[in-house]
Automatic annotation (TrEMBL):
Its EC number is 3.2.1.86. It comes from Listeria rustica. This is 6-phospho-beta-glucosidase. Belongs to the glycosyl hydrolase 1 family. GO terms for cellular component: cytosol. GO terms for biological process: carbohydrate catabolic process. Keywords: Glycosidase, Hydrolase. It is an enzyme of class 3 (hydrolase).
Length: 477
């Protein structure tokens, strides 16, 4: 045991999202979420994600989100397990269509509001601080169908109506908020990120950045409203992060890596600094992007920046300016070259703990605002042994090294307020719709076809993470 670099009051915890764990997809008045119209990976999920208009017209055999892991009915059991691990915080999202089924409803759905009252009360019983994402890939499908999603400015008003209701309803129960999950993902997965389909657009990039402008304005307005309703509220933005390395020391590769990082930083530059970055002017000009802004937009962005910067980190990225080299890309949503210095997960995600420290330092150097690591973890196939044990040492190894590098970043001077690793309980993968790609400390008996008891059981990593929290990060063995 050594002295911990983690500060007193550090928010150790775990993270989930409503659309990946709740289930009860139409129960108690809930409307449709984007994931509710998507099939499993075997049923063509990725094609549906990229062609949502077509997906809505298609009847699939199986929809993983419809029951998911049934957190809606089992939240007490799950939160009790989180408390047993010693969670100080629990990151979750409020399903927008559970509160406003159509997105533009005149009044909220009381049954949906009451559900989150119960969840937050259960957290309070154990002294667990909720960290709430307002829109986690959960723009109501009806807003997509009737308004075209976030490319329509009316979504700002609908979102603000949602925010006003939940800020008032959960005042005193929720202190930490995040406006949009992985806001930069709107450029890569516009249906998830913006409830929109850009396939028919004359200039898809312009449509995505126009929608992004609407979200950035909405984020600033929500930050303003949250502070007015409760001065104790802390509002953050959230980036899908991961430092991009240059493939070689060729200056062209270095420049390409810098441009790749700027693509994500663009959003946080606006949310944390309060203005569009200088480099965006040239980018918009060269891509024929002409944003429509209303009077007052730039003022609200300037005057209502976020309190902290949250981000997800799973891996670093590698890029080259040479198109022949880039033909070899692989990985998740972000195209990346295979880094020969790194091992990779079963899904091709490269494992780079030091990359987390590099990413943290880069973000903190840029913004000088408290950071919050709200997603990090290893997706893997777990095996249940004959005696019921689940020996996920590979997950412990992954987590240990990432926690160690977080500690190093704190020693570097980074202000870090918390850590909520992703999928603290097994849940449905957003990208693939799979259950076999597991992240949790808690195993859920459910397979890719929706079979299983849904019973919960502890993995070996459960006790390991409990020890980490008890020691405030000093005992990582």
């Amino acid at each position: 045991m050594t002295k911990s670099p983690f500060p007193e009051g550090f928010l150790w915890g775990g993270a989930v999202a409503a659309n990946q764990c709740e289930g009860a997809y139409l129960e108690d008045g809930k409307g449709l979420s984007p994931v509710d119209v998507l099939p499993s990976v075997e049923g063509g999920r990725w094609d549906a994600v990229m062609n949502p208009t077509k997906a809505l017209e298609t009847k699939y055999d199986y929809y993983p989100s419809h029951e998911s892991i049934d957190f809606y009915h089992r939240y007490k059991e799950d939160i009790a397990l989180f408390a047993e691990m010693g969670f100080k915080s629990f990151r979750l999202s409020i399903s927008w269509p559970r509160i406003f089924p159509n997105g533009d409803d005149a009044t909220p759905n009381e049954a949906g509001l009451a559900f989150y009252d119960r969840v937050f009360d259960e957290c309070a019983k154990y002294g667990i601080e909720p960290v709430v994402t307002i829109n986690h890939f959960d723009t109501p499908v009806e807003l997509f169908k009737n308004y075209g999603g976030w490319k329509n400015r009316k979504c700002i008003d609908f979102y603000m109506n949602f925010c006003e209701v939940i800020f008032n309803r959960y005042k005193g129960k929720v202190k930490y908020w995040m406006t949009f999950n992985e806001i930069n993902m709107i450029l890569h997965l516009p249906f998830f990120g913006g409830g929109m389909d850009v396939n028919g657009e004359a200039n898809p990039e312009e449509a995505k950045y126009q929608a992004a402008h609407h979200q950035l304005v909405a984020s600033a307005m929500a930050t303003k409203l949250a502070h007015e309703i409760d001065p104790e509220n802390q509002v953050g933005c959230m980036l899908a992060a991961g430092a991009t390395y240059a493939f070689s020391c060729d200056p062209k590769d270095v420049w390409k890596a810098m441009q790749a990082d700027r693509e994500g930083y663009f959003f946080i530059d606006v949310q944390a600094r309060g203005y569009y970055p200088s480099y965006s002017k040239r980018f918009f000009k060269e891509h024929n992007i002409n944003l429509v802004m209303e009077d007052g937009d730039l003022d609200v962005l300037k005057n209502h920046t976020v309190d902290y910067v949250a981000f997800s980190y799973y891996s670093s990225r590698l890029t080259s300016a040479d198109p022949e080299v880039m033909k070899e890309t692989e990985g998740n949503v972000f195209a990346t070259l295979r880094n020969p210095n790194l091992e990779a997960s079963e899904w091709g995600w490269q494992i780079d703990p030091l990359g987390l420290r590099i990413t943290m330092n880069a973000i903190y150097d840029r913004y000088q605002k408290p950071l919050f690591v709200v997603e990090n973890g290893l997706g893997a196939v777990d095996t249940v042994e004959a005696d019921g044990s689940i020996n996920d040492d590979y997950r412990i190894d992954y987590m240990r090294e990432h926690v160690r590098e977080m500690g190093e970043a704190i020693e570097d001077g980074v202000d870090l307020i918390g850590y909520t690793p992703w999928g603290c309980i097994d849940l449905v993968s957003a990208g693939s719709g799979e259950m076999k790609k597991r992240y949790g400390f808690i195993y859920v008996d459910r397979d890719n076809e929706g079979k299983g008891t849904l019973n919960r059981s502890k993995k070996k990593s459960f006790d390991w993470y409990k020890k980490v929290i008890e020691s405030n990060g000093s005992d990582l063995v």
